[in-house]
Amino acid sequence: MHIHEDQQFIEALLQGDHAGISEIYRRFAGEVRRFVLKNSGSEDDARDMMQEALMIITRQAREKALALSCPFGAYLFLVVRGKWLNELRKRKREAVTIVEEDGYTYERQDIAQADNLLLQEEREQLFWEKFKLLGERCQKLLRLSWAGSHNMEQVASLLGVTYGYARKKKTECIDRLMFLIKTSREFALLQSQMKG
Fold first, then answer.
1. Does residue 19 sit in the same domain as residue 88?
2. pLDDT tens, 66-106?
3. Same domain, 19 and 95
4. Residues 110, 70: contact at Cβ < 8 Å?
5. Cys bridge to 155: 22, 144, 165, 174, which one at CB 3.0-4.6 A?
6. Going by C-beta distance under 8 Å and a sequence separation of 6 or more, which residues neighbour residue 133?
């Protein structure tokens, strides 16, 4: 796959390069603003979408070594568009017409990559949102067992419980977390997005 020259913007985000990030805002924030304002959003919404999209792209670049095959602006716009449509769905605005005049040509793979990025981001957000609803003891047990630096016997010892209790409690905590996730409105929305 050919890596686009705009990969420099990804590098600027990863390195926290203020000049590069300022250039991103200078070149692309206006387009994001116009899109959000034309589609039932406010100035604050536009600022939030720009910032959230850049955080998503940065996290994806850090965790998955994101390599651009299209212009940065096109990819950013796909992420913003997807985030904003999801936000509108959450707000339950039924009669929203999406106006797009971005001027970009998108390859199917670029659209799929951006869509997958957003779905993954929303899944992670839902997971951690529901994780925070678990009791403090469940959170600690799960974090320790998932860290990979301790086996379950060590986790039990750190928590001052028996190995059998720790295993049983871990199962109960995971079951509770899955219940919280699967019974949420957000989970139903994600499921419909994945099918559609």
1. yes
2. 787 778 888 888 888 888 887 877 776 444 444 455 555 44
3. yes
4. yes
5. 144
6. 180
